[in-house]
């Protein structure tokens, strides 16, 4: 699990990092510390963070504005705000914040948040993908679409992509039961990530425009309308 902490006050930054290290040193957890929002954003393009702890009141890019930018990059990262002013809580709903912790954060409150996230992750359906650079656990809710490229397939998320050896056929039936649809011999898409349907093309998260094969048009529209109907209730 990758965790980012962003606070312009070094004391709080180090204290929270130490709490996490002390209680979760035996788990596969890495913590990166940042003293400004711009530093964290630069890192976010390179690292897939699972949780970010954000101080709300920071000079320059404040925590709420930073959270909005982070949410554009990832729909799934857990955002936890650090604040001494609980009146900010309503703004947290705009970015789907997981929790608010009053500064200084206590061992018990941090422990509770991390246990909550670990429990959520253990219940989420995911895939383990492996290539020559290593292994990666990717949650199904992260996947925007999968593309076939010669003998490889590429999994796209809102923030990055991951390429492995394989064929779309290896995943088509498994993912069909989880809200995915094969729109073309080269593409499987998550129905939840579709933002537009125009003619024989769809638009998905990230602005990608993908073709729908003529032979798949009717079946795709039926599947998509069925998905929309279920989500409306």
Whole-number average pLDDT?
86
User: Shape, please?
Assistant: elongated
Please report the total strand number as a whole number: 15
For this structure, the CATH topology of the largest domain is Rossmann fold
Order of helices and strands: EHEHEHEHEHEEEEEHEEEEEH
Structural class: alpha/beta
Through-space gap between termini: 33 Å
Query: Proportion of β residues?
Result: 25-35%
Task: Name the CATH homologous superfamily of the largest domain.
Answer: Response regulator
Any idea what the CATH architecture of the largest domain is? Answer: 3-Layer(aba) Sandwich
Q: Mind describing the biggest β-sheet?
A: 5 strands, parallel
Poorly predicted regions are none
Share of helix, binned = 25-40%
> Strand order, biggest sheet?
2-1-3-4-5
Radius of gyration: 20 Å
Name of the level-1 CATH class of the largest domain: Alpha Beta
- Give the total of domains: 2
Describe it for me?
- The protein has 233 residues and is of the alpha/beta class.
- It folds into two domains: 2-123, Response regulator (Rossmann fold, 3-Layer(aba) Sandwich), CATH 3.40.50; 126-231, LytTr DNA-binding domain (OB fold (Dihydrolipoamide Acetyltransferase, E2P)), CATH 2.40.50.
- Helix content is 33%, strand content 31%.
- The chain contains seven helices and 15 strands.
- The protein has helices at 10-24, 37-44, 63-73, 89-92, 107-123, 169-176, 217-231; strands at 2-6, 30-34, 51-55, 78-83, 99-102, 126-131, 134-139, 145-149, 152-156, 161-165, 180-184, 187-190, 194-198, 201-204, 209-211.
- The strands form four sheets. A five-stranded parallel sheet has the order 2-1-3-4-5, with helices on both faces.
- Helix 2 (37-44) runs parallel beside helix 3.
- The protein starts with a strand and ends with a helix.
């Amino acid at each position: 699990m990758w965790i980012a902490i962003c606070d312009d006050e070094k004391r709080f930054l180090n204290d929270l990092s130490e709490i996490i290290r002390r209680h979760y040193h035996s788990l596969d957890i890495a913590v990166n510390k940042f003293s400004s929002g711009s530093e964290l954003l630069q890192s976010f393009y390179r690292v897939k963070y699972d949780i970010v702890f954000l101080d709300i009141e920071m000079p320059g890019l404040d925590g709420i504005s930073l959270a909005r930018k982070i949410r554009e990059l990832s729909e799934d990262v857990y955002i936890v705000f650090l604040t001494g002013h609980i009146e900010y809580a309503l703004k947290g709903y705009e970015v789907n914040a997981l929790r608010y912790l009053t500064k200084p954060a206590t061992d018990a409150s941090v422990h509770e948040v991390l246990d909550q996230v670990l429990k959520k992750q253990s219940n989420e359906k995911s895939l383990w993908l492996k290539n020559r650079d290593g292994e990666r656990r990717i949650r199904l809710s992260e996947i925007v679409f999968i593309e076939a490229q010669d003998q490889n397939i590429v999994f796209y998320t809102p923030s990055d992509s991951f390429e492995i050896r394989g064929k779309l056929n290896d995943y088509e039936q498994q993912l069909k039961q989880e809200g995915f649809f094969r729109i073309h011999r080269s593409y499987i898409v998550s129905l939840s990530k579709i933002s537009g349907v125009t003619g024989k093309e769809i638009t998905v998260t990230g602005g990608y425009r993908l073709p729908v094969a003529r032979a798949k048009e009717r079946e795709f529209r039926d599947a998509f309308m069925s998905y929309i109907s279920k989500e409306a209730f």
